[in-house]
Amino acid sequence: MKKIIAFVLFVAAANSMNAQKMTVALNGGIAGPMGAFSRSDYYNEKSGFAKAGYHFNLSATYKLNKSLGINMLLGYSQFGHKGLRSLAEGYKEDSGTDSTTVYSRGTNHSFSVLIGPAYFLPVSKKLTLSARVLGGYVRTSLSGFQVFYEDYTDNAMTQKKASAGAFGGQAGLGLAYQLSNRVSIRANADQFLSSPAFKISYEHYIVNSGRRLSDYHQTLSGINATVGVGITLF
């Protein structure tokens, strides 16, 4: 429901602006996590076990003048899950079993609604360099995982998926090349970050069987590298 409301507000805001100065763009590409979010060390409780995935965004830019504008963005990122072997080995050592197997449950993903200023610098008649700094709301979900212990009677434990929202932002550079008065191709590179506070819960946790978190509150950051198409409305 929050995603639907955010999309309706986004479209309504775009429609209320002067169409002669409005460009709408759809971009997609790679989302690469950094820092603690990308670590996969069982013994480091800051590890987020996320690996590179993909990112899509729909943006609308309203130009105040030739150099300045306002950029609104709806974004979705999904990240892979890594470090299952590290988790399996860690739980094996801590539980004292002969063997453990770990399977991921769900995905690491985020949905963002951002707005902020944009600056434009014409490089040539058709090529424009841009910079933007955006802030807003980011809703992030962490995948869970399930551990199977070979020697236990109750041989399965699950760390459940978790979700949390927080203020987030991104900043980056872009290039736009005009194919015609209305159509452009675009490339963007943005660094993103947010710091949601997740509450972590378990099903069938076995006492003294290994790593257990009650919360996860780290800065989630990385780089989005995307390409896309822009349409200038008249």
Oligomer: single chain
Overall number of strands: 14
Write down the CATH topology: Porin
Q: Cα distance, first to last residue?
A: 31 Å
Q: What value does the Rg take, in angstroms? A: 21 Å
What is the level 1 CATH name? Answer: Mainly Beta
Strand order of the largest sheet: 1-2-3-5-6-9-10-14
Helix content: 10-25%
User: What is the SS-derived class?
Assistant: mainly beta
Weakly predicted, low-confidence segments:
11-20
Query: What is the residue-averaged pLDDT?
Result: 88
Q: Per CATH, which architecture? A: Beta Barrel
List the total number of helices. Answer: 2
Largest sheet: 8 strands, antiparallel, barrel
Signal peptide: 1-21
Keywords: Signal
InterPro entries: OMP/PagP_B-barrel
Describe this structure in words.
By secondary structure, the protein is mainly beta. It has a single domain, classed as Porin (Beta Barrel), CATH 2.40.160. 12% of the residues lie in helices and 58% in strands. It is built from 2 helices and 14 strands. The protein has helices spanning 2-16, 84-95, and strands spanning 22-34, 50-63, 68-81, 100-105, 108-122, 127-142, 144-149, 156-159, 162-178, 183-194, 198-199, 202-203, 215-216, 220-232. The strands form 3 sheets. Strands 1-2-3-5-6-9-10-14 form an 8-stranded antiparallel beta barrel. A 4-stranded antiparallel β-sheet has the order 4-7-8-12, with helices on one face. A two-stranded antiparallel sheet has the order 11-13. Strand 7 and strand 8 (156-159) form a beta hairpin. It is elongated. Residues 11-20 have low confidence and may be disordered. Keywords: Signal. Residues 1-21 form the signal peptide.
